[in-house]
Amino acid sequence: MRYFIFFSFFILITACAGPSHLQRVALEEDDLLIVLDQQAILDVPELEAPYAHPAQIPASEMKKVLASLKVGPQTGMLMSFFSKDETNPLFAPNTTEKIAIRFSQALAEASPHEKINFYQMTPGDGNTVAVTSGFFLVKNGKLHLKVNHYQVPLLKGRHPSRAGLGLKQSEKGRYAFELVEGKKMAYRSYKNVLGLPGSDRHWLVIDYADFPNPESPTTVRSPALPPATLEERLRTLKRFRDEDLITEEEYREKKQSLLKDF
Q1: CB neighbours of residue 157 within 10 Å
Q2: What is the pLDDT of residue 93?
Q3: Cα distance between residue 251 and residue 240, in whole Å
Q4: pLDDT at 168
Q5: How far apart are CA 219 and CA 186, in angstroms?
Q6: pLDDT tens-digit profile of 105-127?
Q7: Strands 128-139, 142-155: parallel, antiparallel or unpaired by DSSP?
Q8: Which spans in the chain are helix H?
Q9: Number of neighbouring beta carbons within 10 Å of residue 119
């Protein structure tokens, strides 16, 4: 009986370790992995399958969308004071055209029950790569794009789905981000368990039809607010500590970071 239990357990572990039958690889390159995934999106009943797949979005139109996607520092009571007022492209400009072609091909290949997971890898230091990952799908005439990680480190040789695992709590803040709304795109809205409205700043709902060229001169940009001075940031940081809004360790770490950048 003991041997039978051990053998059954071994079979179970082996089966779990194998690739999921709910996923299939559409593209696997050194810098990009695309997986067609039938697993449900948790807690988002309005986006249950079936989707409008296969979908035909030309690579030229997809490129316009991807070139318009920006990320910025995560805002909040603390981060809004100390984050630099800058945004970065979600995908490096020199990779946008290639990714647009691959995304367009994946949408044309996906079945009505498959969303598209993506993992982009860019060079890090000698032992790591930086992973940007998420998923996208088309439903109700909109392109839904969710980004889970942005430039998170991963040891070379590990599967990109493991990006971010093992990060210390003190390190996670430096990889916090949010997507930036643009023309013809908006954050996914929802209501929490209390019925209060909210928005997911990692998830954009994009009206991709006739999407504007990101370089169009008609694009209106909001004027940037002047950044807080070092003195203002230090005073605010001290106040947060004195009011127990942050810990002493967080206070020292952020103070050191501010002085280092000065």
Answers
A1: 7
A2: 92
A3: 8
A4: 75
A5: 16
A6: 999 999 999 999 999 999 877 78
A7: antiparallel
A8: 2-17, 59-68, 79-82, 93-109, 169-172, 230-242, 248-261
A9: 22
Tell me the three-class secondary structure of 163-228, residue by residue.
CCCCCCHHHHHHHCEEEECCCCEEEEEEECCCCCEEEEEEEEEECCCCCCCCCCCCCCCCCCCCCC
Whether the per-residue pLDDT at 21 is higher than 90: the answer is no
Tokens of 127: 């032992």
Q: How far is CA 218 from CA 25, 63, 224, in A?
A: 40, 19, 18
Phi then psi for residue 84, to 5 deg, are: -70, 140
Considering the entire predicted model, what is its pTM?
A: 0.71
Query: Exposed, middle or buried by CB within 10 Å (0-12, 13-18, 19+), for 79?
Result: middle
* Cα Rg of the chain (Å, integer): 21
Q: Which of 144, 141, 136, 110 is nearest to 209 (CA)?
A: 141
Confidence of residue 226 (pLDDT cuts 50, 70, 90): low
Say what the pLDDT of residue 249 is: 81
User: Which residue in 152, 142, 147 sits closest to 186, CA to CA?
Assistant: 142
